[in-house]
Design brief:
Layout: E1 8-13, E2 20-25, E3 37-44, E4 53-56, E5 68-71, E6 76-79, E7 83-89, H1 92-105
Antiparallel strand pairs: 1-2, 1-7, 2-3, 3-5, 3-6, 4-5
């Protein structure tokens, strides 16, 4: 059984153009959750320069050499069984920046 941890990135088939997309897990780790769901935001190289994007550092486990962002407007809940291959895990500071932007977006 997959137990995603905050900051991890998984490849997930979101049903868009038959492509797998990298999703960053932003929800907390909870082994006693009622449902096998995690909250994620998509990672993309389609940078628009808006307030709903958080710059992501280049890491060796993500394909390509282009700069990327986490798109917090694309926040979604994903069932654990839909998570594909684990790509890697971002440093805690990256996760904190994404969570802060989500808080701003939701006016928390």
């Amino acid at each position: 059984m997959i137990r995603p941890k905050p900051g991890e990135v998984y490849w997930v088939d979101l049903g868009m153009k038959a492509k797998f997309r990298p999703l960053l897990v932003v929800s907390r780790e909870d082994p006693n959750a009622e449902r096998a769901l995690c909250v994620c935001v998509p990672c993309t190289t389609e940078i628009r320069g808006g307030d709903y994007e958080v710059a992501l550092p280049c890491v060796k486990w993500m394909p390509g050499s282009e700069d990327g962002v986490a798109n917090v407007q694309g926040i979604t809940a994903v069932e654990h069984h839909r998570l594909g291959r684990r790509a890697g895990r971002y440093e805690p500071g990256v996760l904190a920046a994404v969570r802060k932007r989500i808080g701003w977006m939701l006016e928390l």
